[in-house]
Write a structure and sequence with these properties.
The protein is mainly β and 315 residues long. Helices cover 3% and strands 40% of the residues. It contains one helix and 18 strands. Strands 10, 12, 13, 15, 17 and 18 form a six-stranded mixed sheet that branches. Strands 1, 2, 3, 5 and 7 form a five-stranded antiparallel sheet that branches. A four-stranded antiparallel sheet has the order 6-4-8-9, with no helix packed on it. Strand 17 (281-294) and strand 18 (299-312) form a beta hairpin. The longest helix has 11 residues, at 217-227. It is globular. The protein starts with 28 loop residues before the first strand and ends with a strand.
Amino acid sequence: MWAFDESRPGGGADEAPGEGEGTFFEPHLVIPYFPGDTGTTGPGGKRDFPAGVIDYLCPSIKINGAPYNGAPLPRNQTVSVTIEVANTKNKGMWAMVSLYWTDPTAVFTGNALHNGSDDAEVGPPQTLYVPAGGKASFNITFTPLTKMPNHVCLLAEVTSSDDPAPGTFDVSDRHYACHNLNLLTVAQNRVSTINFFVANPFDTEAEVLVRLRPEGDVELAQLRRLYSTEPVRLREEAFRIHGVGDGRMREAGRELTFPLAAGTRQLCQMLVSTNDLRAGQFSAVRVDQEVKQNPTDGTGARRGSLGVVIFPERG
């Protein structure tokens, strides 16, 4: 049977045909990272990121209708951020999308996200109808102001009355997606740096693991679409990381583990030194963070990442 949805503009049948009497109708909202993404194929019903799908670069988030390559946005000029939402099940639903920004960070916490401040103006949440088995594009204005950092992360959230977002700001949940890409120019025979935050989203102290990893050939091929230059995979020895935000300098390496107080962030710094990049080339490294609420058994873990695309300094 067809169900009649009076909440739809103008009313009308919107649900897909059922299997007879007793069919259960429900919405299933997702901000997709790839075609066919339902956001529930991973462990615990979370989103799974197949090879070649970059978790810090959701293609459903666009700037002025085009993929965004992470370059600093012009100050005091309004752009339109488009977020595409899919509804993969059999009930149409009104949904609301919100846009947030934050300085570069691997795991998001609500107290560090902005949807308006002295640094940027963000348009209000947008509400649209997402039909059963269909999609809708939400457009939210975003105006970077003078004080906003050059590189920021954009995070989108979709929610509805019948399919509410959990409030975790975790992109492994289908209600969230991010664009968390940063650019770094490196000079020959010199160390270049980029700062970012790691965070503990839990209400108790937790153990934080931060790890650097050069992106592989499959991911570099995806990024090449944004830059039209030759990808080069750098050696792991080119990268180091240390923590600088707690009044002491932690030992630099490609991996760090340390405790972090509830609901707090710590500033970290990535150091890059390489002579392997030439004009017309780029490389990329990912920063992975895992925070464990219960380090002894690994439960309550939250993961996140950010990407850094590296270019050689122009001669």
